[in-house]
Fold this protein.
Amino acid sequence: MTETTVERKATNIHWHDGDVTRNDRASMLGHKGVTLWFTGLSGSGKSTVAVAVEKALAARGVLSYRLDGDNIRHGINANLGFSAEDRQENIRRVGEISKLFADSGVVVLSSFISPYREDRDVVRRMHDEGDLPYLEVFVDCSLEAAEARDPKGLYKKARAGEIRGFTGIDDPYEAPTAPELHLHTDQMSLEEEVEMILSNLQTRGIIS
């Protein structure tokens, strides 16, 4: 696998453009498409924030869709595990899905630990190449706070040696160096986090 692509096995394929443009879709919806990529430790609050943002956007009449790490592994990525290679492919697939949703005019809320900076950079490049807005949202939370929350009991299992390669315990998390949004979920209220995200989307002209 290269930095931006996988080995292309299909032959005799050609891109087919349509007659409905991205601007046409934005006009119909009343807002632009974008991918918000929520990254952070397990238990940092990624899914909680994304659910709250989705609800707030719906109240404003903005079409959004959540792509959640566990949910995705029930379907399209059910054949992937948690090795570095499988994590890389997991994020690549979700990046492509996010890009399609954003191109359709939807506000995409992608919540994935995505521990490796290289993999997140690949997703950013996908969007840059498609001239699509992409906002990295660092859901920052200390390991101590995340482990104290432990909503799924995963840290307890990792500490007991029942889970190997667990991010933050025996596998690294590479924090973003320049995220568009930096949430401190062990210091901010959920309402403050949602307001920060909505204000950013408004400032960028993605929603009104």
Summary: The CA atoms of residues 18 and 104 lie 12 Å apart. The chain has eight helices and five strands.
